[in-house]
Design a protein that fits this description.
It is found in: Cytoplasm. Monomer. Its cofactor is Mg(2+). This protein is of the alpha+beta class. It is built from 13 helices and 12 strands. The protein folds into 3 domains: 163 residues, Alpha-Beta Plaits, CATH 3.30.70; 58 residues, Orthogonal Bundle (DNA polymerase, domain 1); 97 residues, 2-Layer Sandwich (Dna Ligase, domain 1), CATH 3.30.1490.100. 37% of the residues lie in helices and 22% in strands. A hairpin with a 4-residue loop joins strand 10 and strand 11. Helix 4 runs antiparallel to helix 5, helix 10 packs across helix 11 and helix 12 runs antiparallel to helix 13.
């Protein structure tokens, strides 16, 4: 059995902006563009009270909160703070798996400080983050990644929550299905129609039935309903896709305009492929209509996609499969089936003894 901590910075981008600009403290702040086509990248807790959320169109966010202050993102600043925080993590363990700039898993089962309590480690890390960055973080502690990530969201912001091993199954059984990491709004609605509203309801379903209804994800749902997650904290997390996308000030209404923009996006994707020495076998075209509906088209080939010419040939075929209708506000290209082996996460869980101190 492991001791896993999930650290999640609170409203990270917005908090950095409020820290660096005292005039923004206590005010509703959105990091992102304020234009007609802008999107909120992050929102302060003052803004969230009005229903402003990340990935929300800026126009809607401004309508919900007329006093909302838009700040252009400064990713170099966020990366610098993120690196500062990770150095703190490495003082305790080398088993650190960053999920993004603002969150990471830590396996502290065997840690550099020789501390027996994962909760004490989490408290110490939170304190050091606050002292060195003036920012707050929330921490979740439990015996696996699913439970630790679930716990970190319970008492945000500046929270800490432990799900002890001997209480894990009962805790999951009580959880509303919407709170499960990996179950989104659409899946939750589908589960509601099946009579699944809590972890206890989900646990009643046989594995084959869940796989039949949800595909490969059914295996995952079957396990987490039983508080099982055998994924290890992977400090060398494998990239599963590489992509680039762009949002436009004016909707693209012609195939000529679409291909012109895809050419620009391809240049960005190829630079990222060359920088990371990555190639793949599947190309996916993503398109968002002006009414925010999203469609995707993919093609898998039997050779490595590694040049701009190859990408152009494939996206030209994919673009011909889409209806322009009322125009596109966003286009993107992503490369999948990359040149490495995916980690096999389908192994059966091993039996564990709940004896470690948390």
């Amino acid at each position: 059995m492991r001791k896993i901590i999930h650290i999640d910075m609170d409203a990270f981008y917005a908090s950095v902006e409020q820290r660096d600009n005292p005039e923004l403290k206590g005010k509703p702040v959105a990091v992102g563009g304020s234009s007609e086509r802008g999107v909120v990248a992050a929102a302060s807790y003052e803004a969230r009270k009005y229903g402003v959320k990340s990935a929300m169109p800026s126009k809607i966010a401004a309508n919900r909160c007329p006093e909302l202050i838009f700040v252009h993102p400064r990713f170099d600043a966020y990366k610098a703070v993120s690196q500062q925080i990770r150095e703190i993590f490495y003082d305790y363990t080398d088993l650190v798996e960053p999920l993004s700039l603002d969150e990471a898993y830590l396996d502290v089962t065997s840690n550099k400080k020789g501390m027996k309590s994962a909760t004490r480690i989490a408290l110490e890390i939170k304190k050091r983050i606050k002292e060195s960055t003036e920012l707050t973080a929330s921490a979740g502690i439990s015996m696996n990644k699913f439970l630790a990530k679930t716990a970190s969201d319970v008492k945000k912001p500046d929270g800490l929550f432990l799900i002890p091993p001997d209480q894990a199954v009962a805790y999951v059984e009580r959880m509303p299905i919407e709170k499960f990491f990996g179950i989104g709004k659409v899946t939750a609605e589908k589960m509601h129609k099946m009579g699944i509203f809590t972890g206890s309801d989900l646990k009643k379903w046989e594995e084959y039935s869940l796989v039949d209804r949800f595909g490969k994800s059914g295996y995952y749902y079957y396990k987490i309903a039983r508080a099982i997650d055998e994924r290890e904290v992977n400090p060398n997390r494998i990239r599963k896709s590489l992509g680039a996308e762009n949002t436009f000030n004016n909707d693209l209404m012609t195939m000529e305009a679409i291909r012109k923009e895809l050419d620009t996006i391809t240049d960005v994707l190829v630079r990222r492929m060359n920088s990371s020495k990555t190639v793949g076998r599947t190309l996916t075209l993503k398109a968002k209509y002006s009414d925010f509906r999203i469609i995707t088209r993919s093609k898998t080939v039997d050779y490595w996609i590694e040049t701009k010419e190859q990408i152009e040939q494939i996206y030209d075929e994919l673009a011909s499969q889409i209806e322009i209708e009322n125009g596109f506000r966003l286009l993107g290209l992503a490369l999948n089936n990359l040149n490495h082996e995916e980690q096999d996460e389908s192994e059966e869980p091993k039996e564990t003894q709940l004896t470690l101190e948390f």
